[in-house]
Every structure is written in C-alpha cells, then in structure tokens.
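Write out this protein's structure.
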Amino acid sequence: MYNKTIVCVYALDLLCSLRSAYLATPTNLKIRHYLIFLRSFYFLEHVSYMALVGSFSFNSFLFGVLSCIGTAFLAGLCTWITLKKHTLLLSQRAFADFVLSNLVLHLVIINFLDRFPSPILNVAFMSCKNVA
C-alpha cells in the first residue's frame, strides 16, 4: 500500500505545477482552449439531446453536430499553427484562416442540408440554382 502522506505530497506538487503552468499560459491561448471546450460540450449536448428525445429534428442535429465538430477542429488546428511558430504575422494569419475556413464550413453545411437561415439567402441561392 502507498503511504497517504506521500500520495498527498505528490498530488499537491501536481496541482501546484498545473497552476503555475496555467498562470504562465497567454490569455489568447486560454480563450482558444475555452472555445474548443465549449464546442466539445455543445457536441455532447447535441448527442445527449438526440439520445433522449429521438430523431425528430435530424437535420438540425446534423447541422449542430457538424458545426461543433468542424469549429472545434478548426480552432485546434489554428491554435496548433500559431503555437508552431509564434510570431504576430502568423498569429493574425491563423486567425484569418480560422474565420475564412469557418465561413466555408458553415456555407457547406447549410448548402448540404438545403436549409438557409434567412429568406434573402434562400431567394438568392435558389435563383442561382435555377440558372444552372
């Protein structure tokens, strides 16, 4: 058996090292990790709602799940790019890549589900579909 005092000392050392690492982490990186955590939590919320309620609104479920997974993946990828070489220009480019790739992701998801959020987009895209 382990000595309880030694285990407590190791646990306190671990907590102190985690706290010091957390305090040394830049604020923008904390915000990005919080975004990834929120998107992962929303994914679990969508899946649990679908498991409890059923498949009544399957299109909404697909849109929510794909949006959560895609945004969390893109946020993680852009965070990794920023951490690889930390310069101001690369950080701004990673943010621009994140915004543009999220725009493309959500347009693809909306087009895939064939549901547009506003009547203006619906009329504009439907008129483009009729031309082709």
